[in-house]
Design brief:
about 425 residues, alpha/beta, 2-enoyl-CoA Hydratase, Chain A, domain 1, 2 domains, 10-stranded mixed beta sheet, two-stranded antiparallel ribbon, 16 helices, 14 strands, about 15% strand, elongated
Length: about 425
């Protein structure tokens, strides 16, 4: 379909934006050459948009925050990859009010977007989180930048994937001078107005010094509010947030700088939330967030983010911080005690063993509710016995042996070994 170019441009030019530079450049590259043309082609998408919220088997609501964020939605948004702040707020409210939902995770992959409505949304999220006993976590999967990072910062806990990006804590405003294109098109604009600043910053005249100063003052004020918001939500100093210089931080470096809490995937975040909720006392669903900048739960060791000889850690492109004034990084947290590490390691091993049993059993047509097993405290050995008993009853042990995996390091799993034994006994 064809859509009106001025409508698209009005959402980009002449207003402050909380958006990553790379995404802004893509938008400008699309819009810029078309100012002399008139209209902008957009792919006609008739398919219904994907649902904003999905509920996992663990009864965790996963809310998608994807694409460029805007204050209000409209007919253009479904075809343009835009998502409205009001839709996000509505999805979070509905999930928190749903009695069947135990917790909420924001699955974020967004470069940011408009300023309008953003601060009100974050304030609303904080109010919802405070009023509910349910945990609210966020996941940078693969990016939570600018306005999207402001949303992520409002969560109890923030995960980032190994290649995920967070940050870009800055504000930008764009003015386009169309006077050259007007002249080529034979157009001459005249403004009749009252109020000295009424037409300041219009697109048909070069940007005046007064208009530039006014826009800069607005950007500076919004930047201060943005930094203060992130600092309060993340428990950081405002100057530390400013020190990031609107750079983008990837993976482990994001955790080290304090802009994220854990390194991991969405599946890991869901599993950890479900496990913590299962361990919580009856009638007490809220799970306190773990300390910021903690060890990655994806591994059992601290992330190797300290600089090695001849190696330099830095924020990733496209918004790298100046190498001459790299922001000072906050200190790493004190290491966990031996007891805490031992308990955490034991739980991780047990969860991993249960997940392996569930995966192997599923390939054999045996369904196991992992969340229910963990909640009831069923041990991995008990799960194995249950699977083997089911397989023996079905007389399918031979198929198990053919399909089950093994590795050179660990050999066949206990399920496979015992299936072989039962199959051999059956043939005698």
């Amino acid at each position: 379909m064809m859509t009106n170019l001025p409508y698209v441009a009005s959402r980009v030019f002449g207003r402050p934006l909380l958006i990553a530079r790379a995404k802004l450049e893509v938008i400008l590259d699309v819009l810029g050459p078309r100012f002399a043309g008139g209209s902008l082609e957009v792919v006609n998408q008739k398919a219904d948009p994907l649902p904003l919220t999905s509920i996992t088997v663990e009864r965790i609501a996963v809310i998608s925050v994807i694409g460029t964020l805007v204050s209000r939605s409209g007919y253009l948004d479904a075809a343009s990859g835009l998502q409205a702040y009001s839709d996000i707020a509505g999805a979070i409210t509905a999930a928190m009010d749903d009695a069947s939902v135990r917790g909420v995770i924001l699955d974020i992959d967004s470069p940011g977007g408009e300023v309008g409505g953003l601060f009100d949304l974050v304030e609303q999220i904080l109010a919802i989180r405070s009023a509910s006993a349910k945990p609210l976590w966020a996941m940078a999967n693969e990016c939570a930048l600018s306005a999207a990072y402001a949303i992520a910062s409002a969560a109890d806990r923030l995960y980032v994937t190994r290649t995920g990006e967070v940050g870009s804590i800055g504000v930008v405003a764009v003015h386009v001078d169309e006077s050259g294109a007007d002249a080529k098109a034979g157009l001459s604009w005249s403004f009749v107005f009252a109020g000295d600043q009424k037409v300041d910053g219009n697109a048909h005249e070069p940007l005046s010094q007064r208009a530039r100063a006014s826009i800069q003052a607005d950007v500076d004020r919004l930047y201060s509010e943005f930094c203060a918001l992130v600092a309060a939500n993340r428990g950081m100093g405002s100057e530390a947030v400013r020190g990031t210089a609107a750079a983008i931080y990837r993976g482990a470096l994001a955790v080290r700088t304090g802009l994220a809490d854990r390194l991991g995937t969405l599946d890991l975040a869901i599993a950890e939330m479900a496990a913590e909720l299962d361990r919580a006392a009856p009638g007490r669903m809220h799970v306190n967030p773990t300390p910021r900048r903690s060890l990655s739960m994806a591994t059992n060791e601290t992330e190797h983010t300290q600089n090695q000889p001849g190696e330099q850690q830095h924020a990733v492109a496209p918004e790298q911080a100046p190498t001459s004034a790299a922001p000072a990084l906050p200190p790493l947290p004190a290491p966990e005690t031996t007891t805490e590490v031992g308990i955490a390691e034991k739980l991780r091993v047990e969860f991993a063993e249960v997940a392996t049993i569930v995966s192997q059993a599923a390939r054999l047509g045996v369904t196991i509710d992992a969340a229910d097993a963990l909640k009831k405290g069923i041990t991995p050995d008990a799960l194995r016995r249950s699977v083997l008993d089911t397989l023996a009853a079905r007389a399918e042990a031979t198929t198990v042996i053919a399909a089950a995996p093994s590795t050179q390091a660990t050999g066949d799993s206990p399920i496979v070994r015992r299936a072989r034994e039962r199959a051999a006994a059956a043939r005698v």
